[in-house]
């Protein structure tokens, strides 16, 4: 049951991530740094309010006794911010297809980190899934004729965040709260500077625009929270394969909702990826057990 809860949470988090462009299309034209700062500010406010309502307390005493855990959490915040900066830049400049390519890279980094640092062993089924995903990636790189450095950096950065969260033993809510809290001083400085210089969209806009900016906190916290919950309960290699849900949804939204020009190269790449994902999710181990049972009888 625990494994299915983790797998389901991971899949849902990537579905929500893939749908985020639908929310950002209503966002007013705004400085990217102000948007990110408000996401941090209202994340702290929202989580603090939920903790107060639910009577949840951050285990400060436990963290003081485990400085490594505290260090991992404090490191995760800035790393996630880099990912959000790159992700937000793509969304606010209308480059939804760029996000799909970036997150196309992330699962492969996740799987590589799982094998290298967490010593996870891939089943033959997952080996085939990874091979199909690599075939799709290789085709894309060969067709484009150059390495997409932006996507590679963004993918590696987010995979690094997942690797860190895999080693954090704190509950997802407290971990996210501390990650946001460590970034709050910088966020407040940016908001204050923009307000003093009359460049704040939050101050100049109407309440609809303000609510949209405030809503960026729950819109992004929910998928991150589900991801954090899932990553401690699910093998990183499985999380990596499920992560292909996000770029696939972004790819479909970019074409069918935002009207971006279809990219035949990515279409072929995603065909390989989805074939690999289906292979990884099919209950082939049950078929093997059934055959063994039939032979024994």
UniProtKB/TrEMBL annotation:
Cellular localisation: Cell membrane
* Topological relation to the membrane, as annotated: Multi-pass membrane protein
GO cellular component assignments: plasma membrane
Name of this chain's protein: EamA family transporter RarD
Please state every residue range assigned to the domain named EamA: 9-141, 152-281
- Is Cell membrane one of the keywords? yes
Question: NCBIfam families, from UniProt?
Answer: rarD
* Stored Pfam families: EamA
Instruction: Classify the source by domain of life.
Output: Bacteria
Keyword Signal annotated: no
Signal sequence, start to end: none
Membrane spanning residue stretches: 7-27, 39-58, 70-89, 95-118, 148-164, 176-196, 211-232, 239-259, 265-284
Which family does the record claim for this protein?
Belongs to the EamA transporter family.
The record's keywords, sorted A to Z, are:
Cell membrane, Membrane, Transmembrane, Transmembrane helix, Transport
């Amino acid at each position: 049951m625990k494994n299915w809860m983790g797998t389901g949470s991971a899949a849902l988090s990537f579905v929500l991530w893939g749908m985020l462009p639908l929310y950002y299309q209503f966002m007013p034209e705004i400085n990217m740094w102000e948007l990110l700062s408000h996401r941090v500010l209202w994340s702290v406010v929202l989580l603090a309010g939920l903790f107060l309502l639910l009577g949840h307390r951050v285990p400060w005493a436990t963290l003081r006794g485990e400085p490594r855990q505290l260090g991992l959490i404090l490191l995760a915040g800035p790393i996630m911010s880099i990912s959000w900066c790159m992700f937000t830049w793509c969304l606010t400049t209308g480059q939804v297809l760029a996000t799909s390519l970036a997150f196309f890279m992330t699962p492969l980094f996740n799987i590589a980190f799982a094998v290298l640092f967490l010593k996870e062993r891939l089943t033959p089924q997952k080996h085939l899934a990874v091979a199909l995903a690599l075939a799709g990636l290789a085709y894309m790189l060969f067709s484009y004729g150059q390495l997409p450095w932006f996507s590679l950096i963004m993918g590696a950065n987010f995979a690094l965040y997942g690797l860190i969260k895999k080693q954090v033993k704190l509950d997802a809510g407290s971990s996210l709260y501390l990650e946001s809290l460590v970034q709050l001083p910088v966020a407040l400085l940016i908001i204050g500077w923009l307000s003093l210089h009359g460049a704040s969209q939050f101050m100049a806009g109407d309440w609809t625009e303000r609510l949209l900016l405030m809503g960026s906190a729950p819109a992004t916290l929910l998928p991150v929270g589900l991801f954090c919950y899932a990553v401690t309960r699910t093998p990183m290699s499985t999380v990596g394969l499920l992560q292909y849900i996000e770029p696939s949804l972004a790819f479909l939204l970019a074409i069918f909702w935002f009207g971006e020009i279809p990219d035949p190269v990515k279409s072929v790449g995603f065909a390989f990826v989805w074939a690999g994902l289906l292979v990884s999710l099919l209950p082939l181990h049950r078929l093997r057990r059934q055959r063994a049972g039939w032979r024994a009888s």
